[in-house]
Amino acid sequence: MLILSRKIDEKIKIGNDITLTIIEVKGEQVKIGVEAPKNVKVYRQEVLEAIQKENKAAASSSSEEKLATLLSR
Predict the structure, then answer these.
(1) Which runs of consecutive H residues, i.e. helices, occur in the chain?
(2) What confidence category does residue 59 fall into, taking pLDDT thresholds of 50, 70 and 90?
(3) Cβ 31 vs Cβ 8: under 8 Å
(4) Which of 27, 33, 45, 52 satisfies CB 3.0 to 4.6 Å to 21 for a cystine?
(5) pLDDT of the residue at 67
(6) C-alpha to C-alpha distance for 29 and 23, rounded to whole angstroms
């Protein structure tokens, strides 16, 4: 893991296409702006984990439904 110190309005570049900008620091909260191409999906970690959990649940229930359909024939 790379750990960097930044001040307000300072930036971090990731590759050629992604820029993180420190917008505000208030107590223990940091606001970060993310500039990335439209085709790059940017999620908060907890949102991504919830999406992945829902996708797994949908895939397994879908598989179970298909199996039940096949067995009922």
Answers:
(1) 45-71
(2) confident
(3) no
(4) 33
(5) 63
(6) 11
Of the CA atoms within 13 Å of residue 24, those in its CB half-sphere come to 4
**Whole-prediction pTM:** 0.71
Is the distance from CB of 40 to CB of 53 less than 8 angstroms? no
Residue 69: both structure tokens together: 């359909």
**Amino acid identity of 44?**
R
What is residue 63's predicted lDDT score, i.e. its pLDDT? 64
Residue 70 DSSP SS3:
helix
CA torsion sign, 45 to 50 to 56 to 59?
negative
Q: pLDDT above 90 covers what percent of the chain?
A: 71
Whole-number Å distance between alpha carbons of 67 and 55: 18
